[in-house]
Amino acid sequence: MPIAMIVHGGAWDIPDEQVEAHIHGCRVALEAGLRILRAGGTALEACEAAVRLMEDDPIFDAGTGSVLTNAGTVELDAALMDGRSLRYGAVANLKRIRNPISLARHVLEGPATFIGGEGAEHFAASCGMPFCDNAELIVEREVALWQAWKTSRRQDEESTLVAQPDPAAVHGHDTVGAIALDKSGNLVAANSTGGTPFKLPGRIGDTPMVGCGLYADATIGGAVCTGWGEGIVRVALARRAIEQLERGVPPQTAAESAMHTLARYVDGGRGGCIILTPSGQIGLAWNTRRMAYAYATEDTPLIAGV
């Protein structure tokens, strides 16, 4: 069976000065996943490795370097879906786990499908995962943005802590994701995020929700979405992309159709979508200014861009 993999580093208004770092981060993550696939490793291993690298790269809104909630903290979500078994593992509202994607894998292989908050961190402890201080996930760039946002609000502390920014006005980072096809023919989809800038504490977007932020079926294809999560959830965007593949639509057309659906049915719906089929065909589309990505198949060399 052919191998193939695609990763993304978020669909949003990536500033010019951050473009090179986003492309580099996607390339490094993809190369790590491809090494695993070429050595006969599984799509699950490849996706976890690629996403972990992006979680550790502070240029991305996942793991270290994530955006801050309106309370000035980091809260992380992640998910994995195995296309052969249709097993799914998701975690949300993590404050002390550096690599949520690895905890999501434990969930996928365990007795549950979705664990959040304190319960997820208790589960992490039972799996022997290391903990970190929330402050270790915060970088100066995001502190500066949060402080500027607080100043611009010109409200008292109580109002600030319950205010949710207009998504159309948010110019922050976004989800990272990956889809891999291994030599056995299995497809796995994965994603991880710190959410939207200045979100309400406890807010959960599309990233860890099956059928919204991701979906994988080894007989049909895998899809991972990125963008404003509230809009993506409303149209179950990942599942809509997969339904296009079920109808025989080529993956590139399916990705573009998903973006049309998001924009048509959700006011201000913006984001991106990546797709990988069991034959190794790639699709990717976005309706934001940029989306960082990298991909490679048996027939194409590594391609990366925004």
From TrEMBL:
PANTHER family per UniProt: L-ASPARAGINASE, N(4)-(BETA-N-ACETYLGLUCOSAMINYL)-L-ASPARAGINASE
Reaction equations catalysed: Cleavage of a beta-linked Asp residue from the N-terminus of a polypeptide; L-asparagine + H2O = L-aspartate + NH4(+)
Identification of the protein by name: Isoaspartyl peptidase/L-asparaginase
Lineage: Bacteria, Bacillati, Chloroflexota, Chloroflexia, Chloroflexales
Domain of life: Bacteria
CDD domains reported in the protein's UniProt record: ASRGL1_like
Any Pfam family: Asparaginase_2
Source organism per UniProt: Candidatus Chloroploca mongolica
